[in-house]
Fold this protein.
Amino acid sequence: MKILKFALNLILFLSLSTGIAQDNIFLKRDFWKANPTIAEVESAIEAGNDVSELNSNMFDAVCYALLAKTDNATVKHLLTKKGNAVDKLTHDGRTYLFWAAYRNNLEIMEYLVANGARADIKDSHGYTIINFAARGGQTNTALYDFLLKHNADIKDTTNSGANALLLVAPSVTDFKTFDYFKNKGLDLNSTDHNGNGLFHYTAKGGDIRLLKKLKSKGLAYNQLNKLNGNAILMASEGVDKHKDALATFTYLESLGLEPNITDKEGRNPLHAIAYKSDDLSIFRFFIEKGVAINQKDKGGDTPFMNAANSNELSVVQFLMPYVNNINLKDENGRSALAMAVNKNTPDVVDYLLQNGADIATIDEKGNSLAYYLLNTFNEKSPEKFESKLKLLQAHDLDLTAAQYNGNSLLHLAARDNNMALLKRLEEFKFDINKKNEEGNTALHLAAMTSRNDAVLKYLISKGADRMVKTDFNETVFDLANENELLKEQKIALEFLK
């Protein structure tokens, strides 16, 4: 029980649930896209917004400002604020120098280094700042010169063995960029751990002109074997980077490369393409070559499931006649319908339901479609949630059924301190004092995770019993009294006794 409370408080401290994050304007990307002035930032601070808070994904104001290319004067102002030190760790263990390099912001890079930022570090995925910038498509050689001047190592590789030359290749438009990295000591014939070389990575960008030039220079383009070094698989991953993708695939096939190929993770070209491309001619090309849309990768996902997860209705409709089992599940027990409810649009959900998708599907943890529906709730834009809710109700989904760990939707909303969602769930008449499998009511969970008393008082007003104890004989007051977030806010808790 103590471990659970610690974990919940840690999650909240690192900034928590969606409901909390929505309260801080600095954690809204639209705020930064509007290019706010220093005066507007100061006004937001005065209104109570935390300029150094990290959200649940470890992004903060400076990260979002850099990603949105907010005016550098504003970014520098943010960096003067307490809690925004130049070496602060953010998403995936990246300092601000990573994000500045990713956005080709040399001015801020210079400012950060001048104030103590290091250029010779790696993030939690093994990327150096040079490699992160290269992966982001930066071809500004002055950026790399600056990093090299400050102890960065251009020969360092990612965990998969790719160097900066390979990583930048999909974004290169001029062979001079390749020459720059060659002159800095990188071999044009270098490969990653899977045997993919410069030709293969360039294929991700789809530039046939560059591919032909690389081939003319003798760079390897053929696959090493059935699992490694396949340019068609690489091109399928970068299909969103170029519009004329079909021409790239037909060119690669003309070189003798096999379209019907599977990598060591069990993925064929359609696994990646199905996520994002709405070009049906590409799907026809691969299907005619025998590429299977029912093929499971090692995670249990098929191309059709990937399309249901995030692609257009037209793609899902096109693939449907080839589907053997619409209710196939991945290793986590998620069906195509669960994925669509979780991330895709109501029209895709409706189409799947009309074509035999199982409304009663349950994942490996015991979560129903109601759990995935809950993930789509957005107080500011409720349309998708409401449309999906109506569709699922029309097919008799039981929204009151217990989810993983015996939690009801009410437990989940209370845990996340999502007041708007709690109010939206009122019509379903949940037993507000029902315990989950760990012996906690919704009020217990709120007491452990709240940073103010709003949700606590709301639940009590709706009938939550303050006297119900956990299976460890702890009261709501006991739990709230151990909540560090409530202590920081100096919230009076006498009303819980």
